[in-house]
Amino acid sequence: MRVTMEASGVTGVRVASAGLLAGGAPATGHARAVVAGLDAHTSRQVTAEMVAEAELVVGLARVHVREIALFDGSLMTRCFTLKELVRRGSDVGPRQLGQTLESWLAQLGMGRTTHDLLGDSADDDVADPVGRPLAVYRQVAAELDDLTGRLVDLVWPARAASSV
Known about the structure:
By secondary structure, the chain is mainly α. It is about 40% helix and about 5% strand.
């Protein structure tokens, strides 16, 4: 099952994708085989402007967050790896009804330092499947499906309660 914002009952949210490498590359054949709708996908390189407009920036690895934080050190308060965001969100608890995303993210970031972004960590990084067998792409897709579903439940808990 692939989590989509619409299927989760979350509306009015804009999601965009960009990475650290130069843009213009198509999705790999394995990625297209595992994720529907990637046939027309072309990569984009992240810019300072994209990040400045975002309320939340989610990277798949610490290196992504580290590089984005170089645009502006204050971005660290709203820039996390997906695993870190879900882990910290699970520790703090879901965003409360009426609580701003900014306030919830501040709770998640308490005690966090720039040192936390150094190195690589299986705790915080989603493995990059590029160049690996199709089975690895399927494993990573399943992990992303789980993590994004958990993230939706943490950030929009009222949606989960209203669908019961």
